[in-house]
Amino acid sequence: MNRFTGFGEEVPTYCCKPSSKRSAAMRFHAKRRWESATTSYQREQRWKAVVQDARWKYDISYIARGKDDCVGSGAFGQVRPCVELSSRADRCVKSIVKETWWTRPAVVQEIELLEMVSGNHPNIVEYYECFEEINVIHLVLEYCSKGNLSNVILSKRFKEGGETLTAKISYQIAGALQFLRDLQIVHRDVKPGSQAISMATHRVAEKWTITDCFSWQSRIMPSNLVFAEDEVVKLTDFGCACLADDAVQDLTDIKGTPIFFSPEIHQLPRGRGYSFPADMWALGICIYMMLCKGAHPFMKEGGALRTRDHHTGVFDVDWFTSWSARDALQWALMPHPGQRIQPNELMEHKWCYSHGLGGGTFSRSIRHKNVLDSHGNWVSIPN
């Protein structure tokens, strides 16, 4: 188990890769079972298998308790604090409105993926159980009281921690992504709001738009990265996640947050699809935002995407950013997925090693860089 030193104590940051037998079993039991359930009875039985009769165990009257702030928002619902009545322990409840019958299979898939990863990695949020009311499905999750990464990027403490804190957070997220990759899971929605940190609850505007997200001045971001302790970041919100084949890039349905989409997603429907490297591109955007005070590497001040720079991986960084951090960013934001750095390679990059993390053994060079031209085709240019 790799470890890093936080403020005065060591915390685990990456668990061992699960055995091949266990990985195969997990994938087998989670893969497309809703589609294979051909009758309404079978679908109902599968639903009962993941939904518990646990409403009486939790106090979710958050407004009456004075906790009316939204901790975060995910792909299908909002997340608010609640209390487990027997232990008085704080929890989070993700409430999903049952708008249609097809809300159920989406929730079932999220629950099954959460059950696969919950408790198996210190940088992935824990899932406890699920219950439903008349119009709402509730997922009970670990309570991360320190806020999300968007809050922390703008905080005074983050400015004081600087690049060292950025490296520690990036190392943990990369560890979580490598763990997901070992289980053949693509998260598809890695963003500063989807990592959770234990810092302070944060109110999200009830109506935010894509234009708000594009603006460099925006303070509103959906929550996906949260903090459970002062320097322990956790990946959450598996509403967009899915299982994928490690051998081929065959995901063609577009899910996630547009400003974190990789070039191969922008290439759709012409391209062959996308897979695990798309998560590393999103992590590269997160790293850039941490290093550059919340700025996006490929957005103009008005909020429009600099398409040419995005497709060629060209961006500017602040002058005080170290050369090793710039190199890590160049690899994470490599336009072609086949040339992009992998999570375990980022953990071994000299940038992480310079801050006391990993072994610093990553070594790779390329003479030609593959980029997207104006017609959406891959072309090779000197690196």
Automatic annotation (TrEMBL):
One term of GO molecular function: ATP binding
Pfam families associated with the record: Pkinase
Keyword annotations: ATP-binding, Kinase, Nucleotide-binding, Transferase
Kinase among keywords: yes
Keyword Transferase: yes
InterPro entries xrefs: Kinase-like_dom_sf (IPR011009), Prot_kinase_dom (IPR000719), Protein_kinase_ATP_BS (IPR017441)
PROSITE patterns documented for this protein: PROTEIN_KINASE_ATP, PROTEIN_KINASE_DOM
Residues that, per the record, bind ATP: 98
Stretches assigned to the Protein kinase domain: 65-352
Protein name: Calcium-dependent protein kinase 31
